[in-house]
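Protocol step 4 of 5: obtain the predicted structure for the target chain.
Materials: sequence only (see below). No template structures provided, no constraints applied. The aim of this step is simply to have a reference model before the mutagenesis design in step 5. Sequence pasted as it appears in the construct record:
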Amino acid sequence: MDPRADFDIKYPALAEQGDGRIEWALQEMPVLRQLMGRFGRQRPLEGIRLSGCLHITTETANLARALKAAGADLALCASNPLSTQDDVAAALVERHGIPVFAIRGESTDVYYQHINAVLNHRPVITMDDGAAELSFILGGGHMSLKDGQQRMIEDIESEVAFTRHMIGRDYLDRQVMTAMREVPRDAFVPPDLKDAAFDNGPLPIGHGQTISQPYIVALMTDMLQLRSEHRVLEIGTGSGYQTAILSRLCRQVYSMEVVPELSEAAQRLFQQLGYDHIQTRTGDGYQGWLEHAPYDGIIVTAAAGYVPPALVEQLKPGGRLVNPVGEPYSHQELILVEKDPQGEIHSRDILGVAFVPMVDTNPTTEQ
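Step 4 output (structure tokens):
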């Protein structure tokens, strides 16, 4: 990008679409609507330069509008390029006059160029959303592995507190959090993304797949309520990070991956790092892994349009299945399916999420 640019977005023509979605979201934010009106009258942040590194979504767009109404001179970049909504970024620039430096899926180099662009704004106040990149860069320090891991744990704990009313718990299981502390996430991300390994957001791992947000990894693991004697089926090995976490908490993990290259790379990594109790296979996750069924827990790390019946069949009575359900790049919900001792099925929605789509190699499978 041109270092002199006032903004950097991908699709300015999407401004109208994005503005409509921002306005729609505002209707669900009554407190912020009231604050926006009050800020417009009182202007408490008049002339204060503010830079934010945030998820560029409809919700944060309305936060930005409120800050601008309060008189702040602000600029924004993306804390997680995979969550950037390009139409929202366009609307903030074209309709609301807020400088935004964010493009969905931007490279690591562009990501840091965008961070530097908002720092060139010479902010008096900075806002960070999970990644704490602005504060870290301004501090000029070096972050050790231990520092990064601890920051990740603190981010998970903060997000649990923020979502406690939705997930129905104030904290996650101690053993789950111990596993999150001990498994080195940086070993499971591509070399060019090591600096972002402990950010509380998903990261691309190639082949159109991602390593999940640490908070989501911890939450989904916690939802399984694993015990040391349990056997677990994972659909979507990916880079192997979630698999390694599971292996610290149960007797055996059977993990399936539809992309052969990812499956092979993960298996090599498990051997290098000494993670045993893991058996991998390349195949269609919609069909499960009947050979080792039934399972005490089943976890799906990609979004399916429905809960695959084969997985429910392979769940042991008393077992739990955790599955993101929804269409790609649309609303998705994290679903908990429980099979009681009599074999009856009970399911409930837990939390809105965003996952890459689950690949179905047999799309005629009955729902």
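Step 4 remarks: Residues 145-162 form the longest helix (18 residues). The CA atoms of residues 54 and 78 lie 5 Å apart.
Proceed to step 5.
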